[in-house]
Write a structure and sequence with these properties.
The structure is a single chain. By secondary structure, the protein is of the alpha/beta class. It has 3 domains: 201 residues, Tetratricopeptide repeat domain (Serine Threonine Protein Phosphatase 5, Tetratricopeptide repeat); 142 residues, Rossmann fold; 134 residues, Rossmann fold (3-Layer(aba) Sandwich). 54% of the residues lie in helices and 11% in strands. The protein has 28 helices and 16 strands. The strands form 5 sheets. It has a 5-stranded parallel β-sheet with strand order 2-1-3-4-5, with helices on both faces. Strands 7-6-10-11 form a 4-stranded parallel β-sheet, with helices on both faces. Strand 15 and strand 16 form a beta hairpin. Helix 3 runs antiparallel to helix 4 and helix 11 runs antiparallel to helix 12. The radius of gyration is 35 Å and the shape is flat.
């Protein structure tokens, strides 16, 4: 394959010599550079480069560049200069020379050769984006098949060196379909080598997602199965073997896959207890499924029950058509008879599987579906998710108890979820003895809610809001906020002083995306709505601090996971997750981790069947979670801790 060491400089120089009337093997080594014609100079440079006398070649080239007036020779000497500089390892100078060459000689027959070499040089100096742009131009503009083939190979190498294995494979695969037999074979061999020798599990997963039912997705899936088998990971091997057989039933590897499936299935069933999980391992929800599964795995790996062979784990991809998901989950329950199932992730999937847990007598714990009452679907449904009701009730209770807030306004997004949040907040405020004096909607993505804010102010002014004279800042005692200098308000000056709106309510509830919250917080400040802002866990994003700045300072929200928490158990989970998966855990991972620990604890306490697990989940008040001993409420929701987080001087700070 040309890919490893392609070089066109020798060929180019020979062509230059032939065009100048000199023949291969001619030598002018004894002739002084000053006595050479341009044609003879080209021959001498060729001889010097072939003999690896690069320094001498550069001196001859630079002399001719200084004295030559003929554009055709300047063009050739400039190109050779870049080659010589590259050979000497002077990559930056070679890049500068080639960039200048392309600018000065855009119509040169060597322009595509120059771009090829320039793309390679940018790869050497670790500027992959620039290399990709230049090599792509060769493919767009050149009709020379040899140059195009070399550009494809080099482009693949750029992506590979940058860790973009999927783009390397997509590029090679696309051009293989358009190439002759020889180049096609080389490109397919390259793809195979990349998959079998260089790609890790996440990279293989990307290829499988990009080529779900075709090559090279089959090869990537086979390689992934080999990874799992080498680690004795029957859980993931079983999942991926089933995926392979479903996608490639007529593949030559199918017989081997079927035999492997029997082996790993038997291995999972040898455990005294089996726990099942269903979550998306493909499609657009895959990242959330991966985070959830990581939480489950971490909990199992930390427990002696997992390492002792007491508990096995089997998983099912939930990214399936509706009818098939229900059928496949039922088949999983029949085949493995799990003691419990963690999942699914989405509320609509909970509704779809509604009577399945009760029919199989297997508790289902959804770690992420934020339904307020999963028990409505059956006695065997539970949820470890932080629901909107859980976080908003905790928020309202906290600000009323700790800050004495009783009167609120709401500015919520006009979406089904936003309407739900508004209703929950109103209900929580009233139940705690407070009131909501005004509520307004905004369109997600808006940068202007001035009309809503003005209506809110007018409603407040009709109640307890006031328009008061502006008091100079220097007249206010910083200790108690009282006016210490009344001169500005004496002798009739009060009527002349500008009036400023002073809210009569204590705080404003502002749920939404960080971008929307930042814009609206600034606009609220512009209209003098200077009250503390309250939010939801969507605020828990660094971009809010970047975009919101001072207008969001003092804001408060709740979340089940705070990466900077001072809680030792949660800090231990965060540290363990980072070490195991080289990433920060998400709330999905935490909630799945808690769900798995709860199930494992019921086994430790003697549960041997699904009904045994359900009884413990139903009656116990000491279920172990990261936030302490908890219970499931009447709606089947785990009563987990919600951290109160405040924005202080541009930082998130835990209050409790």
């Amino acid at each position: 394959m040309i890919i490893a060491g392609f070089s066109f400089s020798s060929t180019l120089l020979s062509l230059l010599l032939i065009s100048s009337g000199l023949w291969p093997g001619a030598t002018l080594a004894q002739v002084s550079p000053e006595e050479l014609t341009e044609e003879q100079g080209l021959a001498q440079i060729k001889a010097q480069l072939e003999q690896e006398h690069t320094g001498e070649a550069i001196r001859v080239i630079e002399r001719f560049l200084d004295q030559s007036d003929a554009p055709v020779f300047i063009e050739q000497f400039s190109f050779l200069h870049a080659i010589a500089l590259e050979t000497e390892g002077q990559f930056d100078q070679a890049i500068t020379t080639l960039e200048q060459f392309l600018e000065e000689f855009p119509g040169s027959t060597l322009v595509h050769d120059a771009r090829l070499r320039l793309g390679t040089l940018y790869t050497e100096v670790q500027q992959p984006n620039r290399a990709v742009s230049i090599l792509s131009r060769v493919l767009d503009l050149s009709s020379d098949e040899t140059l195009r083939a070399e550009a494809v190979y080099r482009l693949c190498l750029v992506y590979e060196s940058n860790g973009e294995y999927l783009r390397a494979i997509e590029t090679a695969w696309h051009h293989a379909e358009q190439s002759g037999a020889g180049q096609r074979r080389d490109l397919l061999d390259y793809v195979q080598q990349l998959i079998l020798e260089k790609m890790n599990e996440p990279a293989l997963g990307e290829v499988i997602d990009a080529f779900p039912g075709m090559s090279p997705g089959d090869l990537a899936l086979i390689r992934l199965i080999e990874f799992h088998k080498a680690r004795d990971d029957d859980t993931l091997a079983e999942r991926d073997i089933r995926a392979f057989l479903q996608r490639f039933p007529d593949h030559p590897y199918a017989r081997t896959a079927t035999a492997l499936l029997r082996t790993v299935t038997a291995g999972i069933k040898t455990h005294r207890h089996v726990i099942a999980a269903t979550m998306p391992f493909s499609g657009k929800m895959k990242p959330f499924g991966t985070e959830t599964f990581n939480g489950i795995r971490l909990a199992l790996e930390e427990e002696a029950l997992g390492s002792s062979g007491t508990v096995g784990l089997v998983v099912k991809d939930s990214a399936l058509p509706t009818a098939r998901l229900r059928r496949d989950v039922s088949q999983l329950l029949d085949e493995f008879a799990p003691i419990a199932l963690i999942g699914p992730l989405l509320a609509r999937e909970v509704q779809l599987l509604a009577d399945t847990p009760d029919f199989a007598s297997v508790p289902f714990i959804t770690p992420t579906a934020t339904l307020p009452n999963v028990k409505q679907y059956g006695r065997y449904w539970f949820s470890s998710a932080m629901t909107p009701s859980l976080q908003i009730n905790r928020l309202v209770d906290y600000v009323m108890q700790h800050f004495g807030y009783t009167r609120f306004c709401i500015l919520a997004p006009q979406t089904p979820h936003g309407k739900k949040m508004l209703h929950i907040f109103q209900q929580a405020a009233v139940q705690n003895g407070g009131e909501v004096i005004a509520a307004e909607w905004y369109q997600p993505g808006t940068t202007d809610a001035s009309r809503q804010i003005i209506r809110m102010k007018e409603k407040d002014l009709s109640l307890d809001g006031e328009m008061l004279p502006l008091v100079p800042e220097e007249s206010i005692d910083p200790e108690n906020g009282m006016v210490t200098n009344n001169e500005a308000l004496e002798d009739g000056n009060e009527e002349d002083a500008p009036l400023v709106y002073t809210p009569g309510f204590d705080a404003l509830f502002l749920p939404g995306h960080p971008t929307d919250v930042a814009f609206l917080a600034a606009q609220l400040a512009f209209f003098d709505v200077n009250v503390p802002l309250l939010g939801t866990n969507t605020w828990n994003h660094p971009n809010l601090l970047t975009w919101g700045r001072s207008s969001i300072d003092g804001g408060l929200f709740g979340d089940a996971l705070f990466l900077e928490t001072t809680d030792p158990k949660t800090r231990g989970f965060i540290t363990a997750y980072r070490e195991r998966f080289q990433a920060d855990p998400s709330i999905f991972a935490l909630q799945a981790y808690d769900a798995m620990h709860v199930v494992l604890d019921t086994i430790r306490r003697g549960a041997t069947t699904g009904p045994d697990v359900r009884i413990q989940l139903f009656v116990r008040h000491d279920l172990p979670t990261l936030s302490g001993l908890e219970k499931f409420d009447e709606g089947g929701i785990l009563t987990r801790k919600v951290y109160m987080i405040q924005i202080q001087n541009g930082r998130f700070v835990q209050l409790d």
